[in-house]
Amino acid sequence: MAKPTRTSSNAIAMHAVLGGYTIIALFPIYMVLANSFKNRAEIFRNPMVPPTPDSFTTIGFSTVWQRSAFETFFGNSLIVTLVSLFLVLLTGAMAAWALSEYKFRGNILLSVYLALGIMIPIRLGTVSILRLVVDLNLIDTLTALVLVYTAQGLPLAIFILSEFMRQIPKELKEAARVDGVTEYWIFFRIVLPLTRPAIATVAVFTMIPIWNDLWFPLILTSSESTKTITLGVQTFIGQYVTDWNAVLASLTLAIVPIVALYLIFSRQLIRGLTSGAVK
Amino acid sequence: MSQPVRRRRKRFPFHIVVFLAPATLVYTVFMVYPLADSLRLSLFAPGEAGREIFVGIANYLTLLTDPLWSDRFWGALKNNFVFFVIHMLVQNPIGLLLAALLSSRVLPGRNTYRTLIFTPTMLSVVIIGFVWQLILSPLWGVAEDLMGLVWLDGLFAPWLGLEGSALITLALISVWQFVGIPMMLIYAALLSIPDDLIDAATVDGANHYQVFWRIKLPLIWPTIGIVSILTFVGNFNAFDLIYAVKGALAGPNFSTDIMGTLFYRTFFGFQLQLGNPTMGATVATLMFLIILLGVMIYFFIVQRRLQRYEL
Predict the structure, then answer these.
(1) Taking CA atoms, what residue in A is nearest to B141?
(2) Exposed, middle or buried, A183 (CB in 10 Å: 0-12/13-18/19+)?
(3) What's the whole-model pTM score?
(4) Domains within chain A, CATH numbers bracketed
């Protein structure tokens, strides 16, 4: 008789801890989103209250729209992230395939060489990256960011993908080879489709740090037309620090797309995170 | 004699080169070369007519002993350790607690909790920094109001602005954001523990706490080890949060200065301080050595002592 009550009081305690922490995790985000749609007086008078018809305003958003090139920043982030992601996934998968499939001299050495970058942050090479980018005449271009982020993403991508590719059954590849197709055909038509779950995992790991990065845009770009969203918001808030409507609106604009994407893809994303960790 | 050599060359198939070349090239040019070149540059100093002259370890001696530089360096190193210790003491235990609760097999709604708690981890550190700056702002008074709900508003202070509390506050903001990572990694490790093992212990009369402390925890020590080394590398490479909230000067009075902000100021310059690439490379090399030391301690000492159980 005592057992069910103990279990249910345990469950209540667990819900209390998890629910309480969920509130801690979401409260600051709620405060920014809710207040970005309120007029200045209400932001200060009743910060916790959601916008009402009386307090509703979008003045912050129109300030952001007029005073900054938000859509450019957003587009730049999108281009840089997607192009880097594509390059990491394609070239990373190609290298991972070669390392996991073919026996050649120096295979292990090359695997170790390419894995070194997993633990060593690329930022530590920034002094020379800046010189290199200047020498290549790529300063203040999105290309420079793409190249750096591709290099940054490759080590982990190659490591995870080659672990995964080792598990592809031999029969599939051998059957194709008997049919006389090229190695490229095997890679693009057999291996890549089979690797899709691992590629999704790698995509998540690669994409988030690139989208959120402040360091390289800060150092490698300078003009309004090449700013990414993170740097754009950072400089915008620096200029409009006293305009609370504009600050809250710019933060909302930076938060909403990511949270929306996250909630849509959270199932796949968390599956990727947890499956990558089990290894 | 030349026959076997030519055969070996011929045997190295062209397609392997095609598969490997793009990734190896980009990685070598934009990651390995800059890292190696930074190590080299740390041994040079700006000379006349833009040429750099070899100075041996003079930069290191300046950084570690010249009072103009060394105060900043040792200060940043100390702050960085404080930053790391707070993560280890707060972030990882909370992550462990949340993961333990989430991995309970009977709790309805646990997937929703998991998804929601992980949300801040997805956002940019810069955005998180500004969000908390607003929440903690005495102008807005949100934090003070909240503390008022539990009659603690008398304890409120502008923590981010005070020399004694700014670093701890920033570290806790970072903990708040990244608690999702240890939570997820430990959660995944807990899920991979076979049910039979837990059932067997329960049949033998172990309660929840005994199952956790005696069975689950020993099995997830390796994961906690990985979480710790990831935290270490991440913390000693941190920059964005401090820069967003406190700027490159990491005020008040450098009390929030960590290796990342020191590196940025030294290399890039800030306000009156001129940028010095070779000195910046020296700071970067020291960061590299610190991270390398941490990783080696982990691989050669911690990981060897951790017992791994085949499941």
Answers:
(1) A44
(2) buried
(3) 0.90
(4) 2-61 (no CATH), 68-239 (1.10.3720.10)
